[in-house]
Structure formats: C-alpha cells, structure tokens
Amino acid sequence: MIGWIQLALFVGVLALLTKPVGLYLYRVLTPEARVGLEPVFGGLERMFYRVIKVDPKREQDWKVYAFSMLAFSLVGMLLTYLILRLQHLLPLNPQGFGPLSHHLAFNTAASFTTNTNWQSYGGESTMSYFSQMVGLTLHNFTSAAVGIAIAAALVRGISRASAKTIGNFWVDLIRVSLYVLLPISLVFAVFLVSQGMIQNFKPYETVQIVQDSSLDSTLASTQVIAQGPMASQVAIKMLGTNGGGFVNANAAHPYENPNPLSNFFQILSIFLIPAGLTYYLGRMVKSQGHGWAVWIAMAVMFVGGTLVAWNAESTGNPRLTVLGVEAADGNMEGKETRFGIFNSALFMTITTDASCGAVNSMHDSMTPLGGFVPLFNMEVGEVIFGGVGAGLYGMLLYVILAIFIAGLMVGRTPEYLGKKIGATEVKLAAIGILVPVISILGFTAWGVVSTWGTATLNNIGPHGLSEVLYAFSSATGNNGSAFAGLGTNVPWYNTLMAIAMLGGRFMVIVPVLAIAGQLASKKLVAEGAGSFPVSGVTFTVLLIGTVLIIGALTFLPVLALGPVLEHFLMIHSTQLF
Amino acid sequence: MSTQAIKLLDRSVLVPAFSAALRKLNPKEQLRNPVMFVTLIGAFVTTLAPLVGWTQDEPLSFTLQIAAWLWITVIFANFAESLAESRGKAQADALRKSRAHTNANKLLSNGSIQIVPSESLRKDDIVRVSAGELIPSDGEVVEGAAMVNESAITGESAPVVRESGGDRSSVTGGTTVLSDTILVRISANHGESLMDKMIALVEGARRQKTPNEIALTILLSALTLIFLLVIVTLKPFGVYSGVSFSITVLVSLLVCLIPTTIGGLLSAIGIAGIDRLSRKNVLAMSGRSVEAAGDVDVLLLDKTGTITLGNRQATEFIPAPGVSIRDLVDAAQLASLADETPEGRSIVVLAKEHGFRARSIQELHGAEFVPFTAKTRMSGLDAAGLKVRKGAADAVRNFLGGAFPAEVDETVKRIASAGGTPIVVAKDGQVMGVIYLKDIVKAGLPDRFARLRAMGIKTIMITGDNPLTAATIAKEAGVDDYLAEATPEDKLALIRKEQAKGHLVAMTGDGTNDAPALAQADVGVAMNTGTQAAKEAGNMIDLDSNPTKLIEVVETGKQLLITRGALTTFSIANDVAKVFCNNPCDADGHVCGDCTVERHAA
Fold first, then answer.
1. In the beta sheet, which residues pair with residue B301?
2. Do A437 and B291 touch (CB under 8 A)?
3. pTM over 0.95
4. Average pLDDT of B209-229?
C-alpha cells in the first residue's frame, strides 16, 4: 500500500513540475527570451561568447550545429583522457592515486563525454578529487547540456518551416549550463548536504568499527571511509541523468543517498528535465496536447515497468521461499533496508527509463523478471522520459516512425505537425534506431562466444548472458548502470564498450540533427480534417505500441534466452544462476 | 482503351503471369525489393543446405518442407506482381492492335503528297487524313473538320467532331476519321504519342517507385536488417546457451519475422492503383500522380458540367400584373420555338408542362425567327401582327422604350438576387412576364461534397458567373468556397495561393488557357477532348472528358494509400504475433521450426 502511495505521489509531483520546468526551459532555449537569472549569470554568458568568439545572434544550419557539437565533445573527451592519464601529476590527490590505464582512461573519457557514466573503476579507489571534479563533473554538466541542446535543435526543426537554421550550438550549450544545470544543481546540492551528504576535501577517514569482523580470514577492527566533494557531484549526476557515482556503491552508499527523502528527490531530479522537455515540445510546436501525449505515453510505460519490477521483486525467489530464507516481503538480496523493495524497484526502473544509470540497489541480484525491466528499458532506447534531451529526441524518432506507419492508413502522405514525412526522414530515423540495435546485439553476440567475453564473467547460463547483454545495452544506451557480475576493467571490454558508447550517442545524434535540418527546411502543409492527430488517446496508444513493438521484435529473442529462460528455470527446476 | 473488363481468373492472364513470376526469380529483379530478396536467399540456402550437409541434425523432410514454403512465398509475391502487370499487358496488346503499321499522307512543302510510314513522322509534319483512314499520330487539326471515331482510346463508340481552331482541334493517333478530310499537324514524334504513352503506362514499363513507396521500402529494409541481425546473433547466443539452431530453423525464423506480406504486395498495389484508374478511363502519367491524388485536399471544380448540368433551365413563369399565365407561357413558347440553345429548349419543355404543345415554326405563316445577337441580347419571333421578344431585362426595357411595371422589376430583382437568370418576355410592345432560369445542381453532389469534407478535402467552385449567382449555386451544391467571374489567371493565382498555404490542389481543364493552371496544380486532369496544350500540361487525362470524374480520381488515390497502409499495419502487427508465437520455442530449435511452418501454412 505504501508503495502505491509513493508511486502516485511521484507521478503526481512529476506532473505538477512538468509545466513550470517546461516553461523555464522554453525561456532558456529561446535566446531572445528573458530567464530572470541574467543579473547573476548574464555577465558570465556574455563573457563565454566573447572568449569563444561566437555571435549569439547567428544561428547555424544542422551541419554546422553537428560539427560544433562533435568538435566540442572531442575536445572534452581528449581533455578528460589526459587528466586521467596524468592524475598523479595533478593537484587534489590526497590518496596519491596513480594514472589510469590507457583503455580505462579511454573508456572513462568516452563514458563521461557521452553522458553514459559507465564506471569500469571504483571511484574512491581510483580517482583523485581533481579527476572527479574537473575531468568527470565537467562532463556531467556539458554532456547533459549537449543532450538538451540536441533535443532543442530537433524541436526547433519540427516547429520551423522553410528555414535553414536550427539554433546555435554554443548558445544552447552555454545557456543550458548557466541557467538550468548550474542553479538547480547548486540548490539541490545544498539540500542533499542538509540530508547528510558529505562535501569536503578531506583525506579518507579510518575509524574503529563497533564489532571486529573477519574478512578473508583476517580480522579487521578498522574501516576506511571515503570522503570528498560528494554533494556537488551527486546533484548534477542525477539532474543531468549522468549516473556516475562518486563512490562505487553509487546511490546505495549511505553518504550518496542518506535517506528516503534524498532518495525521492534524487529520482525526481532524474525525470525533472526530461518531463519538462515534453512541455517545451508542446509549447514550441504550438500544440500542448502533443507534448502531453508524449508525456503520457512515457508515463504509462514508466508505471508499467515499475509495476512489473515491483511485482517480480516482492514475489521473490520461490526456491529461497521453500527453504525458508527469503525475506517476508520478497527478494531483499542486494537491496538497502532503508529503501526496501518498492523504492529499489522504482529507482531501478527510473534510472534505466532515463539514461541515468545511478543505482540504489544491486541490479544483478534482482529476480530474472525484475532484471528484465531495466534491460528492456535500455534496449528500447531509453525513451521513457529518457536522458536529458536524449530521451526526447529518441522518442521523437519513434514518433516519426509511428506517424509514418499509421499516417499511411489515414489515406494521405504521412505528415507530422504539418511536415510531410518522406523517404529522407524515415531513412534517418531508421539509422537512429538501427545503430543501437546493431551495437547491442552485435557486441553481445560477439562477447558471449569469445574468450575475452566470458573470461571475466562471474555467472554462467542465462544469467551470464544477461550480464553481458546488460553491459552492452547500458553502454550503447548511454545509461551507465551495471548489472555487475561482469568484470569490465579489461582491455577488450573497456575498448569495445567505449566504442558502443560513442556509437550509441553520436551515431544517433547526427541523424537526429539531420532530421532537424530536413524538417526545418520543409514547407508547411495545411492541417485538415484528414491529418493524423498527434495528440489524444489514439496517438498515445500508437506511440506506446510502436516503442514496445520495435523493442519486442528486436530484443525478445535474446531476452528469451536470458532473463525469460532464467525465470522459467527458477520456477520449474532447482537451477539457480 | 478497351473498356471490356479483363477477368482476373482468365487463363490468358494467369498462364503468362505465372511464367513471368518464375522469370522474376532472377536475383537482379528481386533486389528491387529487399524483403523478398532476403526470402529468396533463404529459399536458396534451405534448398542447398542438405546438399552441402549443413543440416545433419534436422530431418531432411523438414528442411525440404521449409524450402518449399519459401519458394512458394517468393513465387506467390512475384505472381501477384505479374498478375497486376499482366492485366495491363492485355490492355496494352489491345491498344497495340489499333496502332498497327499504317501509312500516312505527308504534305510536303511544295504542296504535293507523299506516302510515308507513320513511324517516320516527326513533330510539325503535316499530314492529310481522309474518311476511313487512321490518324497516324497525335496532332492538331489545322484545316477542315471531320467526324472522328475515338473508340480505340475512349471506348465511346459515338463519333466526335474535330475541327481546326478552338478547343476541339486535337486528335489522337490511332483513331479513325469517318467523314471529310482534315489536315493535321503532328505534335508528337513516333513513340511519344498518347497511344505510346498509354501502352507504356499500362504495361508498367516506365513505372517508377512513388515517393511514399520509396519511404516505405526504406522502412521495410530497416526492419529486414534488424531481423537479419536478430537471427544472425541468435546463432552465437544459441552457442553460448548450448542450443544449436540449425540453418533451416534460422532461415525460417527470419522469413517468418520479416514483413513479407507488405513486402510481397507493395509493387502490386502500386500497379493496381494505375490499373484501377485506367479502368475508370483515366490515364495517369505516373504512379506519382495517383499517389498525389490521394493527398489532395483542395479540389477546384468547374461549375459548368461538374457541379451543374451545364445549362440553365427554365423553372418558373411569373406573369406581369394583368397578364394571365397562359398568355405568358404562350408568348414565351413562341419566342423560344426556333431557339436552339439549351435555355431556349428548356423554355419549350417547361411550356409543354403547362399544356402547350410545341408548334413548328412553319405552322405560323410568314413567321421569321429573330436570333440572339450580342448587340440586341434578345431573341424572338416576328410574324404577321405578332412581335415577341425575350431577353435580359435591360435589353427588353430598351426595346420597349419604357419602364416595366413595378412588380416585374421586383420579380427581376428577386430572381437575380437568388442567383437565377431572369428572362423578360414581351409581346407587341407589352411586358408579359418573367421566365426564371436557373442552374440545376447535379443530383447527389451535396452528399458527395459532405463526404469529401469529412475526408478533409475542401471543394472550390470555379465559375464565370457573377459573385451573386456563384454564391447561390455554391450554397445549393454545398461546396466550401467559390471563385466567381474567374479568368484563367485567377484560377492560376488561386492554385498558387492554396499551395502556399500548404494545400495540394487538383483541378480539371480542357482549354489551352487552362494549361498553366493544369501544370501548376498537383493533380491536373485534362479532358481528352481538350487541346494538346492542356493534355501536355496535366498529369492525368480523362478519356471520357467528364469533369466530375476528378472526385473519383481523388477517391482512387486515397484507396491506394489506405490499402497500402492497412497492409503495412497488418504486416507489422502480424510480425509481432509471430515473434510471440516463436519465442517460447526458442530454447528448443525443433519446436521453433514447426511453429514457422504453421505460420506460413496459415
């Protein structure tokens, strides 16, 4: 019961915040509009324009926009790579950590540049404070800002007609960082500190533990507790759907997620901007109904996924129930007692609906069907609210396909908000959907039959398959959460996953920007009684159907051999993985 | 074009279609259609697999059965396409017969006639065609007039008049002159005439994929690619899971998943669209224009002939004060007896309904018909002691040299304001009354326009009438808008305006002055009786020259898009069903294969 109330509360608060956040984003993403924070950040904004020599009034066509974005990301990635390789020479390294290996540095640089935040390392045992704050947190802001900028560029393309330009990348990047991410993160970080999260530059503390315990047959009486500037990084890690934890345990660690209230605001902050962007979409295309239709489609799939995961986890593992060792309320393995079954299932669903990847429980320890949910969420492209910006532009690819298929049934050439959907748009949308499929299925298939793929696998059978599948789904979808059970800090995995992350990000963004340019240049077709409506129940059902069908058609065979098979084996045999 | 329907299950169609289906197995042909191409590869693989020994773990009968189903799938898709094409081929053959080798009498520059084969004729050559001869190629009558039998093109056996000058000057190659001799200036080189174009079109020789077809093919290719990947990766997943999927099972799963329904029928649907139009005697210059017709949301309809019956008709006699209705009808009938215009005849018909038998003009001794002239704007009859006139109110007023009674003025005004045409009748210097002429809207049109409106199509009536008349008829017919006192320039401007607003516009036209508008419109249906310029400007030709058919053209275009959309949706939904049907069996390859067979048998 308490779970239902929390779910209703979460969806209700999200719905209430959607409009104000959307309107605020509209002002930020419309450079002529006044945001209200100009007295604080206006000078900084103008200074940035002067430094990078950008005329904020000059818009770019999609190719220049895409080139600017790629160049910016490449430079950022190189910078992080260098910081990680040279961290032993750089300041703020009280623990004296050495440089990262070339493949781990490549993987991590790609990971943070692409808003993935896959971590093949444990933060507290690998990264200096400087690496965390400059090399990584910088990307937490910029990669989120890039995602929002791309979504804004696509929405502009949809809303414009006979236009050449889709906005200015630098202006979007700077305005989103200064007016959205920075102020909200500041407030959020202060709130998190108030809940008990730490924010300091102290070396790690060694404390006496209450009761001596033995680990690997050595008696331990002390424990090292990691310290650091945590709140500042956690705020943007959630808000920017980055997900990279300050410590290895991520949001399951008591410092990184002290209590249920901090938990609630952390998951709320994941969906905050993605939900607001749907309102921005409606506002820009002058059809608020369309924005809400997209919102509802996302919300329905989100609630559905939560219910499946929640149900699977509270049902627990029948094998353990028989033995009498299962907790009364279900599968508590790998979960924090301060969050319980529901909040763990909810967090897991949200973090994989969006491309966040922060975790407050061990996904590897979920029941097979519980683990099915995050896999499916990531494989449909994280479009259920999704990553900041990435969720909206991913969903809009599905919108284009859905309208194309159904629009033909209306008896006229499919059109989306007055733009005819032709061969070029379908081709580009298909590329945007195909590339992740190729990456996930291709790399996973390669991995499970190779020695490099199975050497570091802790489990066998269908669960092992799920672990490899999860890793590549998470990397390709730029999620960053891990199923664990798979050691990825080896050259093969680090390198291939970095490629999957880069492909999953940029080979989707470039077609998206091309669609934006293509749609912007199109003439407007008058909307008539025969046009396919892009708001209302029919459209919402159609959109949900398209997402689920494409996901189902593509991934059900492999999911059947992974979690589904594991589920049946768990029920019908004594085999556990 | 031969209008006799070619039956679907005719031996003469089925047999060649089947052999064409086999010929289409050529991989080069199949490459046009990625879905069927993959199926074909699958058929090859499953057929060859037992020979190479890839399927030791499968019973041979199972593999062969799968192979058989795959071959049947491919051949059936080819068969559907060639069946659609062969109907066109049969029509083309019928057309070709009428275009059998002929000679033409070419007029040389020195005035002499030279007999040349019609294939050698070039544009701007002049030929002489006499009674009983075939017109060698498309052209324009430059001298003379003749009756021409155009049944080879239109299927209409009644001959039509073709004469130099005006809007009836164009003749079509392959039609026969029945009387008189005409000189024709050839307007199309050999192989480019209307007949050649028709043959090429119905045969599908020049068929290009339409924009929507291209987009749909891309979507289908993407889906096929996804499924190919799903199946290819299933093999390593199987290896990891310790399940060995045989090549037969993988191929059958793949074919089961890819959207074969729409893939196989896509091209047949496109051909069927053109075919359906050609059975309505409308010749579409490309599949693109058929598809555009389905997208049209503004229809420009000429009032005359499309919305109204073409002529105003007398509907009421309104006598002047002090005149009995019998006297008015009598005078009106007298004034119209010799009037051969449709309006005049309708007055006689209405008089008959009032009990006045039509009299012949000879019955009235010494009677003389006074025809309508632009100067007098009246017509009537002069006989001994009798002078009747009918005409426009002001013309009759001038003729009488005095004012009408107030009631008559009232009536004239009332009729005019209702959009009708008042005709005043005068006899021996006295006003007898007014005849109410009005446009008769064709039966069933308001319903039809309402249906179009529901489909999101706006109808605009084009008329040369004054705005008042136009408004009345527009209201009566139920069109959404009208353009009154329209000139060809206005029409062109209207099309441009609607297109600028993002609408797709369809119109019909026949005159040379319609050509720019026909070319500008997204769907321009030219009347076959129209001028060559109009036919070249339009992208469809209505062989029956019936402007109402524009509505059917649009409906056919819509049907084409709907059919294709419904099949796409069905195909994809079916795929989903198949995935769920197959997936539970994945862990066991054999069950899976059986499932595939069941699906294809269903």
1. B461
2. no
3. no
4. 84
